[in-house]
Amino acid sequence: MAIKNVVLSGAGGNLGPSILTQLLKAKEFHVSVLSRASSSATFPAEVTVLKADYGSLESLTTALKGQDAVISTIGGMGLDAQELLIDACVAAGVQRLIPSEFGSDTDNAKAVEWVKPMFTIKAELIKYVKGKEKDGLSWTGIATGPFFDWGLRIGFLGLDLEKKTATLYDGGDNEVAMTVLSDIGRACVGVLRKPDETKNKMLYVGSVSITQNQLLASVEKITGDKYTSETVSALKSREEGASQLAQGNVFGMYDLLKGVIFGGPDFTNDFKKFHGLSNDLLGVPNRNVDDAVTAALKNDNLD
User: Fold this and answer.
1) pTM metric for this prediction
2) Which residues are within 8 A (CB) of 57 and not within 5 positions of it... i.e. 6 or more apart?
3) What are the contacts of 271-276 at 24+ separation with CB within 8 A?
4) pLDDT digits (tens, 9 = 90+) for 110-160
5) Interior CA angle at 279 toward 221 and 168, to 5°?
């Protein structure tokens, strides 16, 4: 199997631009972006823009004709739209789909049970695409853990860079695999370069494997700042986040996710320990923590 024509669905947001950058940097693929007909987004001149109605199988199939691979970064409430995208891939003769996994281990039943509906949809979509293997569509899921640089900058990893405070879940000593955004793009390129070795598998990557305490120590060393830290219960964070979601507060998802990500071995987010990393296979560097922190603080995307 050789992959040449690649479509990125969901080229905006936090992740899409980083994947697009790495696809173009590889200079091995004809890169297209799948875009809604109403979208006015612009892309580099070397990118082909394919307009489609995401709610129409016929429209999506027409757009995907002649394509070898589709990478989906569709997120949030649009996750379940991938089922129609999968159907269109089959109808158009696409060889490989990289679905919108990119995050925690959704093969973990406890994580799926907690993070509803997001992880439930992701897990069901993997089952759905597995059912299409007999129709000629292969797939590769990529679990990345939290987006390291984005997460550090916005406080998602527990550190508030502006207030100089740290929220440590269950003491902050649970190791978690995390991946720099540009390295997620490199992982996607690695899958496309090695379609046979990556066929019909869930793969796990991480630019760094780190605890919150290690991250805090690195940030304090690099910035010279001293942080005030507090320890909170990961279980309580999950419970409070789930309660907020049940009341219609979508921001409860952040507390819920952090309670799962930093919730310890039950959630298998230490990919290196529980799954083994596919960094070498996919060309994802094993980064020095201080270097990764320095780059994130400088807004260096490590492209």
Assistant:
1) 0.96
2) 84, 87, 88, 91
3) 271/105, 271/143, 271/145, 271/177, 271/204, 271/205, 271/206, 271/209, 272/175, 272/177, 272/206, 272/209, 273/175, 274/105, 275/105, 275/143, 275/204, 276/204
4) 999 999 888 999 999 999 999 999 999 999 999 999 999 999 999 999 999
5) 40
